[in-house]
Amino acid sequence: MGLQEELKTLSDKIKQYRDEARVQLHLAHQDVKDEFDDLEQEWDKYRTRFDQVMGDASEASQEARQTAKKLGEDLKKGYENIRDKMK
């Protein structure tokens, strides 16, 4: 195989890998976006619960405070996961 043929084969292989990487990257970003959209819905629920607990903290039950804390911790982990995927 001559040098020109080798370069053509290499170029074709690079193009194939590039195209595959582009598709994978698009799919990965879509997965992260979907995950973010799901977290945004959970964020809305958390803010509602948080506002309820903070608005009347003296009457908020221990269970309600623990639920709000757990929701917050789960959201934090979810957003950290997305941040780490985007690095």
Word description of this protein:
This protein has 87 residues and is mainly alpha-helical. It has one domain. The chain contains 2 helices and no strands. It has helices spanning 3-55, 62-85. Helix 1 runs antiparallel to helix 2 (62-85).
| Residue share in helix | over 70%
Number of spatially distinct domains: 1
Report the uncertain regions.
none
Q: Span between N and C termini?
A: 41 Å
Quaternary structure type? single chain
Overall shape = rod-shaped
Radius of gyration: 24 Å
- What pattern of helices and strands is seen along the backbone? HH
- The average pLDDT value, as a whole number, equals 83
The total count of strands amounts to 0
Structural class: mainly alpha
Beta-strand percentage range = under 5%
Number of separate helices: 2
In short:
The protein has 87 residues and is mainly α. The protein has one domain (3-85). It contains 2 helices and no strands.
Describe how the helices and strands are arranged:
Layout: H1 3-55, H2 62-85
Helix pairs in contact: 1-2
